[in-house]
Amino acid sequence: MDPGDDYECFREDKADLIKKWLEDHGNGSRSAVVKTLEELEGVKADETDYLLGLFAPSHLPFDHMRNHALDPSIADMTAKALEILTRNQKGFFLMVEGGRIDHAHHDTKANRALLETIAMDQVLKTIRAGKHCKFTIKGDPSRDGNALRPNV
């Protein structure tokens, strides 16, 4: 698989950042670039130190709109990251952002935001099932007021 086949470069210098990433991370010896759920599932965590997932040229699809045969869920990506990272004896930091929840809210799609929240709940279940790490969850800080107590 040529990692650059599916995405057009928009950099003025035409630098191939995927190629550079691979060069910087062992040139494929213990690194991998994946673009589909099948490729992600095929990654052997015990043989991989660095993993770059490029599943869309921009935002990932909303979970309920993704192609379940091709596109990994946020829980799938988290599970694979944990498989690889938990091998590190020094510990690790993993940030998982359910940013599509916010996108749905900005588009005034409450139902879509709830579906994305359910997808994020699957991430929490994935993390808790592993019993190998502690986690913190945080939402957006308040801005102008409480939506449940409108300002009068």
Query: Helical region count?
Result: 5
Number of domains: 1
Q: Which blocks of ≥5 consecutive residues have pLDDT under 50?
A: none
Query: Helices and strands, in N-to-C order?
Result: HEHEHHH
Computed Rg: 18 Å
> What share of the residues lie within helices?
25-40%
User: In percent terms, what proportion of residues is strand?
Assistant: 5-15%
> What structural category characterises the helix and strand content?
mainly alpha
What's the N-to-C terminus distance?
Answer: 59 Å
What is the residue-mean pLDDT, rounded to a whole number?
85
How do the strands line up in the largest sheet? 1-2
> What does the main sheet amount to?
2 strands, parallel
Shape: globular
Count of β-strands: 2
Structure description:
There is one protein chain. This protein is mostly helical and 152 residues long. The chain has one domain (17-130). Helices cover 36% and strands 5% of the residues. The protein is built from five helices and two strands; from the N terminus they run αβαβααα. The protein has helices at 17-24, 37-42, 74-85, 99-106, 110-130, and strands at residues 31-34, 50-53. α3 (74-85) runs parallel beside α5 and α4 packs antiparallel against α5 (110-130). The protein starts with 16 loop residues before the first helix and ends in a 22-residue tail after the last helix.
